Every structure is written in C-alpha cells, then in structure tokens.
Amino acid sequence: MQIATPYLMFLGDVPDALAAKTAYGIKDWRPEWCIGQMRLPGCKADLGIPDLTLPEALAKGCRTLVVGVVNAGGVLPDHWVKEIVAAIEAGFDVASGLHVRLGAVPAIAEAAAKRGSKLHDVRHSSETFPTGKGTRRPGRRLLTVGTDCSVGKKYTTLALEKGMRDRGLDADFRATGQTGVFISGRGVAIDAVVADFISGAVETISPAAAPHHWDLIEGQGSLFHPSFAGVSLGLLHGAQPDAFVVCHEPTRTTMRGVAHPLPTIRQVIDLTAQLGALTNPDIRPVGIAVNTQALAEGEARALLEALSAEHGLPATDPVRFGVETLVDRIVADFAEA
C-alpha cells in the first residue's frame, strides 16, 4: 500500500482529542507529511496545524485526505460522506483507518471510479494469515500492554524504537493498528483480522530474526477490557514477548467506553505474565509507561517515583521524560541472554 503524501487530515466533528488519535499519531511522528487539517463545526480536536479548505490544501500540494479518527465499531458517519466525496471530486485520494471500507459506501466508490482516485483502507490487509503455532522463534520481542485502551502503547513503542536505536541496539517498530501502519508504512491492523488468525498474523509481522534483534510490537486494547480483551490475548500469544512494558493513564477510574473499573498495574503485570507464559515461559516486565499529560510536572515525577518503588521497575512518561530508564533496564536484563 503506497499512500501519496503529503496529507490533509480530516477530523470530522469528533467529540474529543482521543477520538482523533490516529491523526494525532501521524502528526506527532510524521509532521512533515501533515500540511493541514479539515474540521467540521463542533469538532473538539485540534492538531495545531492550519485549517485548510480543499482548494487551499491542493494549492499547498496535499495529495491524500486522511480520515484520522477512531470510534466504537470503526463506522463512517453518514454526514461525513459528502465531505469525502467532495475531496475526491477535487482530486484527492482518500485513506481511512476505520473498519468500514471506503469502497463499500456507494457514493464514495462512484466518485473514486469517476475521478480515478485511490481509496486506501489501512485497517484491511490484503494478506491471508495462518493460525498461530506458538513455537519459540529466534530474536527478541517486546510488547506494550495496557491498563486500558488509548493509554500510550503506540507512543511508548515508537519512543522505545528511537531510544534503543540511539543506544546502538537493533530494534524495529511493528505496527498492529491503523495509526502505526500510517506511520511506519507496514504492519497489520490486528483488530480487523479474523479471530482465529490474530496470533498467526502477529507471528507473520514479527518473524524469526537474528538472536539480538528486537521487534517492538505495538499493543492493542487491554486484557481487562470487556470489548477488546480477545484481541489483546491473541496479540500477546502471537507476539511471544520476552519483555513487556505496562502503559497506564492515572486519572481514569473506569475503562474507556464501558463502566468496568480500571485494573491496577499489578493486576496487568500478573495476568500478562501468566497468560504470556503459554508461548514464552520467560516473559518478564521491564517497565511502566505513564501518560502524565493531565498532571503537573512535580505531581507526575512523584507518581513515577512511587510506581517505580512499588513495582521494582523503572517508570517514566516516554513523551515527557524519555525512555532512557526503560532502555537501561532492557539492556541490563538481557545483557547475558
């Protein structure tokens, strides 16, 4: 899948920034591709880049309209369709990470066929995957797991890739969500894979490698989330991680989109180790990544120190304070492995 850059980021009228996390992720990690944003009245997200009309975006060289939103079920709201059709008629390609295929919407399909525009459904892979086998394979793997969805697993994994490469380690980010695929140009949106093949898909994108090579696998959902635990478990078994980092957002009391209480970090560590041992008996936690955006700096540092002392693991905010302590722990734990 070759998506033409640069992008005009379409945010629709999403109710908050989390609902536009795909757009934020692309902007944060590929800012040079994001020329402007297009928002509808009532939109509560703002990427901090220029608001552009379709003609203005074309004049600035934008080639693809990216539907940079996520929502429950991955649906495409009816009132967005005319905006996407207008973009196609203006000469844009369109890329989306939603579950609904762009070409399944008649008005979009007809406009694309007439204009010759390309439609990219990033969430849907054209590959077929085997069932997972669970056989140990060479190479090292790290998986980010979470107390909830949308807590920073992708950002942590990307930050670790940079931090480990800066330290001279052989490490590659492996995308398992639509935003990660937009950012890295490869991977598979694991939540769109038929359930029987989830673990096999992860084995496919993280195959056997050199003994000291690290695949850094983007986590999805949470083992405790009633909506997404099945995806998270298949991902854990296919990733066969040697190491995992727990990602957490400290201001939440219930899990996103449901009434279930947030699990503790200890519960996530224990269950991940227990279930992950099925395909890698040597699995171990190496750190805690906390999204402290809602906390003042002093409060954030105090929380991280307390969590580190409580769990005996380095704790950091990868965006705010970096991942050096996590890399230190990885190097120390696997120096002789």
TrEMBL record:
Coiled-coil boundaries: none
A Pfam family of this chain: DUF1611
Name of this chain's protein: NAD-dependent epimerase/dehydratase family protein
Every D-glutamate N-acetyltransferase-like C-terminal domain range: 131-327
NCBIfam families, per the entry: DgcN
Segments forming domain D-glutamate N-acetyltransferase-like N-terminal: 41-124
